[in-house]
Design brief:
heterodimer, A: about 290 residues, alpha/beta, Rossmann fold, 6-stranded mixed beta sheet, 4-stranded antiparallel beta sheet, 9 helices, 10 strands, about 35% helix, B: about 280 residues, mainly alpha, MetI-like fold
Chain lengths: ~290, ~280
């Protein structure tokens, strides 16, 4: 199916098998990404990636540092364009970031000049009111609704109402990421893109965040593309795991080295899958940070 | 441990004493020199005494310019009315007007820098030219400005524009470029359009730093204003200083210099406090 790839195709979830075309949300077609270096040569990052993501999937993308997993996420986001190939979201080619794809990066996930509540209401406000119309009477009524919805999201993320007027630098790393998730979810995006979103957190906070995102995913059924370099996290969270790895020479770009569905009876299969993922990635612990 | 060691911190009282020491030493040295010179020559005009400075300040504040015709009801005027018709007030108003014109012209410069930093076509179009423009010594084009714009207000304001705006444009450009790309992408994913990202995400984030940049450029702004006033003006603080230089009027020049410094200090302080008040989230590096 994928020319030149070493992809092991997943057995798709039964509920998605019925109408694969309708359920297809993201398609990456023969994606190549390379950069020109200072000496004029080109560095390949991604080399012929083909990937389909269906609605409701929680896809964990893992690989070693520099393998291009964040590049892959930025392609889906629309923040980067492939050298070759194309990315489709809901059947339309992705050309720039938009409100259909929520984004939670590892750092700078919140606007530092806005309070927690203003960070969450920023999306709805900016979408419905331009620079000029935000000073019209109708704005203030709608704003109350936005704030009420933001408070609901805040509570759902396990934050207190007293945190609403704090600025991001007054929050811990975990709280900041909770707000960032609320900020993205309030827009009801079709897909949530998380780029090493929990990597900077301490192990305890990270475990709490993993539980939270899993719960949010179950409740909202939002498709999630989750980039991490932590194998346990990828398996624990994902319904599907995509491993990116270079196929041979260091100068080559990364391909999809493994693409599999995580079974629901995770506990039994965990050790087996971890072994296969490690083998495919060519490293026992990748770049574990814990 | 040596007092000059990096790890030694002065206590509160010592810090207070040290920070005021040079002021006290400067003032003491001045009055000592004034006294000495007046002992040798009671008519000395170079280093006026405190009484002469006070008289000079009173004269500047309460009396109109010697070239002006005195008001017919001058004797019946209140102290406030006399102050408002005095040359210090009138010169201050004239300079302040030009200063605020110059300051107002920095805002389009901020917007240009913002757009250059965000919109690649804008950046490509303007950057090379602004970098070149920044290297032009503003005072060297003063004769050209006087020829092109005449010797009225416009040439003085243009001098400020040429002298300060390129720095503000480039500062804003660099500040815009320093905003993490994640923030811009985040803005788009939240439904923002290009101008929303520019004004509601980026400008709001860099604004406190832009204000700091403007604060740091207040002195160059005043410098260009003073250069224009000294060469071609009929009013203003610098015009008065240049005029009194011919008459060795140090008893008025020194209060004028201190008055200008005080005004600039107050403008700077106001901007700093406003910045702090309006942007509680902002932490200065």
């Amino acid at each position: 199916m994928v020319p030149g790839s070493i992809t092991e195709r997943p057995s798709a979830p039964a509920m998605l098998d019925a109408e694969p075309a309708a359920d297809l949300l993201i398609r990456l077609e023969n994606i190549h990404v390379s950069y020109e270096l200072a000496d004029g040569s080109r560095k390949k990052v991604l080399d012929g990636i083909d990937l389909d993501i269906r609605r409701g999937e929680f896809v964990s993308v893992i690989g070693r540092t520099g393998c291009g997993k964040s590049t892959l996420l930025r392609l889906v986001l629309g923040a980067e364009t492939p050298t070759e190939g194309r990315v489709l979201a809901d059947g339309r080619e992705v050309v720039r970031p938009d409100r259909d794809r929520g984004y939670v990066p590892q750092r700078y996930s919140l606007f530092p000049d806005k309070s927690v509540i203003d960070n969450i209401t920023f999306g709805p406000e900016v979408e419905q009111f331009s620079l000029l119309t935000r000073f019209t009477p109708g704005f203030y009524g709608r704003r109350r609704e936005f704030r009420a919805e933001a408070m609901r999201q805040l509570r759902r993320m396990g934050l207190h109402e007293s945190d609403a007027n704090k600025y991001p630098d007054q929050l811990s790393g975990g709280m900041q990421q909770r707000v960032a998730i609320a900020q993205a979810l309030v827009m009801k995006p079709k897909i949530l893109l998380m780029d090493e979103a929990f990597s900077a957190l301490d192990p305890g906070t990270r475990a709490g965040m993993q539980k939270l995102i899993r719960q949010v995913w179950r409740e909202t059924q939002t498709t999630v593309l989750f980039v991490t370099h932590n194998i346990a996290e990828a398996i624990h969270l994902g319904t599907r795991i995509v491993v990116l790895a270079k196929d041979g020479a260091e100068s080559s770009g990364s391909k999809v080295a493994l693409d599999l569905t995580v079974p629901s009876d995770l506990d039994e299969e965990f050790a087996k899958i971890a072994g296969r993922v490690e083998a495919a990635a060519g490293h026992s612990r990748l770049d574990e940070d814990e | 441990m040596s007092l000059l060691s990096i790890s030694v911190k002065p206590n509160r009282f010592t810090a207070w004493l040290l920070s005021w020491f040079l002021f006290a030493a400067g003032i003491s040295l001045y009055f000592y020199t004034a006294q000495k010179r007046h002992q040798e020559n009671p008519d000395d005009r170079v280093v006026p005494t405190l009484a002469q400075l006070g008289a000079g300040l009173y004269q500047a504040a309460m009396n109109p310019d010697a070239d002006e015709e005195p008001a017919s009801d001058a004797a019946g005027q209140s102290a406030l009315e006399r102050f408002r018709s005095g040359m210090l007030w009138k010169d201050t108003v004239a300079s302040a007007r030009r200063f605020f014109y110059g300051l107002a012209l920095l805002f389009p410069a901020v917007l240009l820098g913002l757009h250059m930093g965000l919109f690649p076509y804008f950046g490509t179009f303007f950057l090379r030219f602004i970098l070149f423009f920044d290297k032009i010594i503003a005072l060297s084009v003063l004769p050209i400005l006087f020829i092109a714009f005449g010797i009225d207000e416009l040439s003085k304001v243009m001098l400020i524009v040429i002298g300060v705006t390129p720095t503000i444009i480039l500062d804003t450009f660099n500040l815009t470029k320093s905003v993490p790309p994640e923030q811009i992408v985040k803005g788009f994913t939240l439904g923002a359009r290009d101008f929303d990202v520019a004004y509601r995400v980026v400008l709001k984030q860099i604004w406190p730093r832009v204000l700091n940049s403007i604060r740091l450029n207040l002195k160059p702004l005043m410098l260009f204003l003073f250069a224009g006033e000294m060469i071609a003006s009929t009013d203003g603080l610098a015009y008065r200083i240049a005029l009194l230089r011919r008459h060795m009027g140090m008893n008025i020049i020194i209060p004028y210099v201190l008055w200008v410094a005080l005004l600039l200090f107050l403008v700077d302080l106001t901007m700093r406090l406003l910045n702090k008040r309006l942007h509680p989230w902002f932490r200065e590096a």
